[in-house]
Amino acid sequence: MSPPFLMLIGVVASTLTNVTPEHQRMMLDEHDMEAKVTGMLLEMDQTEILHLLESPNTLKAKVAEAMEVLRKVSQQQTCNSAVPDVVK
């Protein structure tokens, strides 16, 4: 690993240890969402990815679209886990 990367890890670790557990969860959830959006974009056709890299506005729109999909899925999971299963 390169030294700048190791320095970044140190900064992230230091930041996480200096915030409340609730804030830690929020920070890690944000990172998880970023990773999921990146994965969603990388699953696209290579030609589409290249187009997004050449068009910042289109890239922003695609990221916003992916974020909205993830938010909806997260909300559905939260709603589903709040409703107890009914045994038939």
TrEMBL record:
Keyword Ubl conjugation: no
Pfam families: MLLE
Signal peptide extent: 1-21
Domain of life: Eukaryota
Record key words, sorted: Signal
GO MF, any single term: RNA binding
Domain PABC residues, every copy: 1-75
InterPro entries: PABP-dom (IPR036053), PABP_HYD_C (IPR002004)
SMART domains reported in the protein's UniProt record: PolyA
Protein name as annotated: PABC domain-containing protein
Native organism: Tetracentron sinense
